[in-house]
Each structure stands twice: as structure tokens, then as C-alpha cells.
Write a structure and sequence with these properties.
Shape: globular
Low-confidence stretches: none
Number of strands: 22
Mean pLDDT: 95
Distance between the termini: 44 Å
Largest sheet: 10 strands, mixed
Strand order of the largest sheet: 13-14-10-9-1-2-3-8-4-22
Number of domains: 2
Helix content: 25-40%
Length: 464
């Protein structure tokens, strides 16, 4: 093999990543193409924290069950026919035990439906406060910037806690002969790196390849057309799209190191740190890119990052549309009047203490996204969607606050205005109860004695 050429070595490992997240959808033909190109394994992420702490706090999925089943059906039958394993990471969005069971149930239904038998390894990553408190007392849990030192009280406040596993528990399951590995919370890269590292390929190219392909086709020029195939060998890796109308370029591939990564050259994994400062990105042709020069620095201590979600109250919202030019020209003053009126009158009227509630207004179409950083805040908008948010310790109180604000969100005038304006609620009833609200409260890492210490694996069989 010459530099900047794809490997033809039988020791190379080819990983098919069909989509950035299970349930996102992909052309089924791209799976067939990846297998025809020699894929040794199919790896797909099933989770994300992008949509916030609710899904971890409630142990529910952000994806539609039907969409997950559609993707799994396309993957599992093709993989079983080809005799290659499948890995799904961070099952059920947040990787809770319930998320693993949710995907397992879907896989079992599919196996029975299409007439295949699968050896399944379920790897659970959920942690309990009682399990973690002795580690906290022993000084084995430390904060990751900008978090503060952890307390037992914070641990106990979490509805659910997960640890982000590295590749080792997944590799163990593959070594044990699993056709399908369903893991709880894992790093996005661990599921891609597991088989190459199990087969002895170097950590530098493997972790770098896994990072580039973690979001499927996002490292290509046309992300919506399907995923990518990685070919990882002793010197580097090659990445190519699975759709003929898409391409990988040195820019599209190198740019993905900046995706969700504070440092564009270095990335921390449980076992150490990927260093890509000396990596080269070379176009082999108009569709494929060869990457070489990546290194991996093993850590002195193996660490597992913890994610925890705690309930912080209940919310009710009202959405109102405003197109009145006089109000919009003084939108800050108008919003301040409503908030001040509630703060001055709601506590006595509703029998609340100031600590019992919080009210906010977001202005979509004005500055709801950037807030104080909005560069055109001095320009009156033409239309604004007002989102009034009431948060309280219970749902009934949050809803009473929203009802208290209702007349003002519908008719409140400006100071000195003698006619009542009218605005448009999204629907009736105007109050929309959002239920319990959660917050991420863990940004901490725990030192472990083995990569498997915090995780549990159960092997079963599904299908006919």
C-alpha cells in the first residue's frame, strides 16, 4: 500500500455508518452498496443530547417508534443476510435502561416478522445515586469544566443517570458472537471504533475515523443522501459516501473534527485523547478521502463521563402572535410591563412566594435566539411570536400563573395607550401545559478500575 491510497489489506476493517441517528432515515440501497463494498459491521448511533435533558429525565425517546423500526428493519435483514454484526449506541435517545429495552423490543418484533434469528447483547449504562455515592466519597468523581464539585444531594436529585461507555464493553459483546449489540449511553465514536480496535488496528486512525463518521453523511457534500463507509488500516483510513450523488472532500472530512468539539484537533475519549494535529487529508478521487497521521494518547486513568437529569419544576406556556406596529416598536417596554405586573400582583392574588415561581417571555422573530447578543435589536420587527413561560413547583401553579397572564397577553396596551390592542393566541385553550421540566446537572467524570466496571451485559436471542 502506498500513502494516500485505500488499503487492500485483509486486515483492514470496513465500518458502514448508514445515518447519523437511528430513525433519521436513509435510502435502503445505500446499505446494500456498503455491504457490496465489503462492510464488516454496521454501526449506528441511537441517541443524542441535542434536544435537551427531558429525554434522559423521563427515560423516553425523541424519535418516532415507526421511524426507528423502519431503519432497523432495513439494517437488520441486510446485515443478517451478509453475516455481519450491527451495533446501536445510546439506545432510546439517552441510553437509559428503558431505552435499551425499547430498541430491543423493536428488534425482536422485526426479527420475528422477517424470519431471522439474532444473538443480542444488551449493555446497560444506567447508574444509581447509591452506586455512585461511595465513589464520590472515595474521591473518584471530579467535575469537568465549568461544573462545580459534585455533592451527594445533586446525585440524589437526578431522575436518571447514565455513564458514557467506551468501546470495550461493545468489543466484548462482538467477541462473544453477538449479531446485534444494543448499548446504553456510549460515546458517539465508541460503537464505530469497537470492531477495528478489537481486531488490533491502531487507536489513532480508528478513533479519528470514528469521529469523522459519527454523524453518517454529515462529513459529505450531501448529508441527506445516506451514510458513509470507513476503511481503517494500520496507517490511516479512507472515507467514502454510500450514495453516488454525494462526495467526500478534504474540507468536508476535516471540518467534522470541529463538530461538537471544543478543540478542532483533540478529542477526549474514556481511554485517552485523539490528536489530529499532524493528520493529512488527501482526495483519492472526486468522492473519497484518505486520512493519515492521527495519533492517540492513552490516559493515565480510565474515566467515564456521567450525565444526569433532574426535575426542576413544571411549566405552562402561552403563545401569542403580535403584528401591531406600535407594540412592536416598543416590544421591550411592553414585555417588561407584563412581567412587572405579574411580579407585583400574582404573589398576593395566587398566594405565592417569590421563590415559588418564575415567569419569562421569549420573543420569536425579534431576539428569542440570541437574546442580548441580537445585532438588530434596535430594528422593530414586523411580526413576533410571544412565548410566555411560567415555571413553578407544581403544574397547577404554573397553569394558574399562565391564566393570570392571559388577559395581558391578549390585550395589554403600552403605557399611555387608551385603546386596547388585540393579539392572536395560537389556539384555545391558550395555556399549554408542558409537564415536568428537567435540567442537566452532571458534568463530571468518574475514575474506574476497568472499562467495564459501571456496565452490565445481558445476552439473549430473538427471532424464530
Amino acid at each position: 500500500m502506498t500513502p494516500s491510497q485505500p488499503s487492500t489489506s485483509p486486515d483492514a476493517v470496513r465500518v458502514l455508518v448508514p445515518v447519523g441517528m437511528l430513525g433519521g432515515g436513509f435510502p435502503p440501497a445505500t446499505i446494500d452498496r456498503g455491504i457490496a463494498l465489503g462492510a464488516d459491521i454496521i454501526a449506528v448511533d441511537g441517541g443524542s443530547t441535542d434536544s435537551g435533558p427531558h429525554y434522559l429525565g423521563t427515560a423516553t425517546a425523541k424519535t418516532a417508534r415507526g421511524a426507528v423500526a423502519r431503519d432497523l428493519r432495513n439494517i437488520l435483514f441486510a446485515a443478517k443476510t451478509a453475516g455481519i454484526p450491527v451495533v446501536v449506541g445510546s439506545c432510546g435517545t439517552s441510553g437509559t435502561d428503558a431505552g435499551v429495552e425499547w430498541v430491543h423490543d423493536i428488534a425482536a418484533e422485526i426479527a420475528a416478522e422477517v424470519g431471522i434469528v439474532l444473538e443480542v447483547s444488551r449493555i446497560y449504562s444506567e447508574q444509581s445515586a447509591s452506586q455512585l455515592e461511595p465513589l464520590l466519597v472515595a474521591g473518584r468523581i471530579r467535575p469537568l469544566a465549568p461544573a462545580r464539585p459534585l455533592t451527594a444531594e445533586t446525585l440524589r436529585s437526578c431522575r436518571h443517570i447514565v455513564g458514557l461507555m467506551g468501546h470495550e464493553p461493545i468489543a466484548d459483546a462482538l467477541a462473544g458472537g453477538a449479531d446485534l449489540v444494543l448499548s446504553g449511553r456510549a460515546t458517539d465514536t465508541a460503537l464505530i471504533a469497537a470492531l477495528p480496535l478489537l481486531r488490533g488496528l491502531p487507536a489513532g486512525p480508528t478513533w479519528h475515523a470514528a469521529k469523522i463518521a459519527e454523524c453518517g453523511g454529515l462529513c459529505t457534500t450531501n448529508p441527506r443522501t445516506g451514510g458513509v463507509l470507513l476503511t481503517i488500516d494500520d496507517l490511516g483510513f479512507t472515507v467514502e459516501p454510500l450514495d453516488a450523488d454525494s462526495a467526500c472532500t478534504p474540507t468536508s472530512v476535516a471540518a467534522h473534527m470541529m463538530y461538537e468539539n471544543a478543540d478542532p484537533f483533540r478529542m477526549r475519549e474514556p481511554a485517552g485523547t485523539l490528536d489530529t494535529r499532524d493528520a493529512t487529508y488527501t482526495a483519492i478521487d472526486d468522492r473519497r478521502v484518505r486520512v493519515e497521521g492521527s495519533r492517540f494518547e492513552p490516559a493515565d486513568v480510565y474515566t467515564i463521563k456521567l450525565e444526569g437529569s433532574a426535575a426542576v419544576g413544571y411549566q405552562t406556556i402561552i403563545i401569542s402572535g403580535i403584528r401591531d406596529p406600535d407594540i412592536l416598536a416598543h416590544i421591550d417596554e411592553w414585555c417588561d410591563r407584563i412581567i412587572n405586573h405579574i411580579d407585583q400582583n400574582a404573589p398576593e392574588t395566587l398566594g405565592l412566594a417569590a421563590a415559588d415561581y418564575d415567569v419569562q417571555i421569549r420573543r420569536y422573530g425579534h431576539d428569542a435566539v440570541l437574546g442580548a447578543a441580537e445585532p438588530e435589536a434596535d430594528r422593530p420587527p414586523r411580526e413576533v411570536g410571544i412565548v410566555f413561560i411560567a415555571t413553578a413547583t407544581d403544574q397547577a401553579t404554573a397553569t394558574q400563573l399562565a391564566k393570570f397572564a392571559n388577559p395581558f397577553l391578549l390585550h395589554a396596551p403600552l403605557e399611555g395607550q387608551h385603546t386596547l390592542p388585540s393579539f392572536a393566541f395560537l389556539g384555545s385553550p391558550a395555556e399549554i401545559e408542558r409537564g415536568p421540566i428537567h435540567q442537566f446537572v452532571l458534568q463530571h467524570a468518574v475514575d474506574v478500575t476497568t472499562p467495564q466496571e459501571l456496565f452490565r451485559t445481558v445476552d439473549t436471542k430473538v427471532g424464530q
